[in-house]
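thought: fold this chain, then report.
action: predict
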Amino acid sequence: MVNSQKPRVVVTGSTGAVGRQVCTRLADEGFSVVGLDRRSGISAHAEVSLLTVDLAVADLRLLLKGADVVVHLASGVRAQDVHGDPGHDMLTVAERLLAAAADTGVAHVVVRSSAMVYGAWADNPVPLTEEAEVQPCRGFRFAEHRASLEGLATAWAGKAAGRSASLLRPAVTVAEERPGGLARILASAAAIRAQEGDPLGQFVHADDLAEAVVCVVAERFDGPVNVAPDGWISAPMMAELGGPAPRLRLPAPVASWVAEVRWQLGFTDAPPSVVPYTVFPWVVANDRLRALGWVPSHSNEEAYVVGYEPRATDRLDAKRRQQLSLAVAGGAVLLGLVILGRLVGRWRKS
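observation:
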């Protein structure tokens, strides 16, 4: 049974790779924990209670009653979401959660954002600190949603004295043998590279992100904080660690066009709006989090290798990979031209 005398933390997204670790580690640190998720889960820890709930319809005031802290990890927006407005519904859920937190006297909210809120721009400093402007690349719903989520949490904290909001901005997060949706999207998009840039890579292990959550909860930190190991990885090093994949370098306008064609034809689940993140830098500094006492247990290289999924192309030599790269890119261009020709033909007939 959960001990109600201990500080109480409610964690949404409690069955995810990060959420599971957050619940257990907070309990180990002396908190009583209630985990909320649409998926059912079982906890072996005496101070962790897991509830299966839908945040969109549940009585959140009842669920947050007596809570001191809310950790919101259930974002619900995927990197490949572009159609409709999935972010709108999830932001409505966040608004419901924050309203319930206000009504029940919650003093501290932690939200999982992303380093992608800084955007990927040619003039970005390397590395980015928390003082950098939040300007996600236009059209990339994942980053835009995280920026909006930050805005909601910051506004909530500013409406009453004594409130605080921790805005965690992690680099690309990976778990054991699971690179995560964002990592897969970026890897897919990088199959076609623009000649203008070769981005730096930064990867944080899910365990280290969970430890960052515990850190900001314990310190009741207010404001944005980057979550990433020290430094970053160059593109050649990533290729060496993960095994080179077929890719072709093209001028930026052509690369963007090919990315759009690949997306429209269903050759990739990477939306064209993510392309800037494979061209320009957006790596972050971790000084602020380290000052709070956080120490990463995995380097960028270790996290990248841990989350790396071997591909069939890893068994090919460099010449065969290059031939495959040319074939894939050439096929995409050819099909794109066919589609363009058909569209022009329809336009002339109309």
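thought: worth noting. The first helix runs from residue 17 to 28.
final: tokens above.
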